[in-house]
Structures are given as structure tokens and as C-alpha cells.
Give the backbone structure.
Amino acid sequence: MIIEAFPVGPLASICTILGDERSGEAIVIDPGAEANRIERRLHDKNLTLKQIIVTHAHLDHIGGAFKLKSLTGAPIYLNDKDLPLLQKLGEQAAWLGMEEPDSAPPDVLLAEGDTVGLASCPAKVLCTPGHTQGSVSLYFEGLNLVVAGDTLFAGSIGRTDLPGGSFADIIQSIRTKLLTLPDETRVICGHGPMTTIGEEREGNPYLQANSQFV
Ligand SMILES: [Zn+2]
């Protein structure tokens, strides 16, 4: 398997490419920007894009999805609870001082327990609301990997002060959906370095039993 996670756009949002060299198929998670560069990486590795999966509809995670779809024809997957945010891409662009991309409705709506991804490396959709109402994490059990979007960061958690955010929900999501995964599970976060579930269980200040936040 090809697993590449790299920052894109001015907010350095982490975009992930998962590719199967044998079938020549790939998925991309959170193409927040730089669709041309992402498409070139796929092309260089002879990968055909099958799915564009977006963990949540903040502009820095979804911003390049529409262009990437137009370049590759791959469908866009998003949880329907983030549709209101998708309708406000113009407002988001204004807050962030970024350009508003051409947008389109998602092709497939994600729900808890859905299986997405490639046949050779499927992912289970975990609804992890809190950063936004429709935030999802993608658990690739066979790869020992979860892609957590802006729900969980190394040593921190996603902000909950934006529209649709809820601190109680994000803590509940992390505790019930992410900390229940095996300690050795690697975590690709929406920004910053990778971590593991075990490291966050042990050291994340938001997730300690005696935490002032719980
Ligand atoms: Zn976000």
C-alpha cells in the first residue's frame, strides 16, 4: 500500500493518499487545496482515483475536492450533517482570507458504520462530531490506521468554538470512538504530526482521567 500524508494549502491541512499498487486504485482524504499537485502525485504513481473522502466541510479540508473531482471524475463523500457548512463556503473563505472554490453537492453521504475505501483496504466510517456536527474519522483496521480529521491532534483536540462545534461532543466522540481503538493504531491528524491512540490516551492533556476538561 502507498500511504502518503502531506500538508496542503495555507493552513497546512493534511491530505492523505492511499493507493494500492496492485490494482492501481487510490482514494484521497481531505484534498483541502492544491488539487493539481494531488492529481500529479496520483498520476506519477499510476494511480486511478476512486473516491474523494472529506472528514468535514471546513474549507481547508474540502477546498480542493471539487477541482480534484473535475480532474479525475472521482465522487466526493461527506457526512450530511456538514451540508450546512458546505453551503457556507463563501463565508468560510471570507473568514480565512482564502478564495472561494467552485463547489458542488457531495455524491455520496457518509453515515456511521459505512464501509468506504478500496476493496484491499476498506475503512469504517466513525461519526465523531464535535469539531463540526458532521465530522467523521476513517478507521482502516487492516492498516492499523485512523484518519481523524480535526477531531484529534497530537497532544490536542480540534477547536470547538466555530459554528456547529461542541466541546462536550468532541470529548465524547474521542472517548467512545477513538480511544476504544487499539493503542498501536496510528493517527493521521488534520494538522500537524501523526500520533498513535496509545500516545494520546497516555499524554493528551484533554483526555486524562483527572483532566479539568472532562
Ligand atoms: Zn476543521
In short: The pocket of zinc ion is lined by residues 56, 58, 61, 131, 150 (CB under 6 Å).
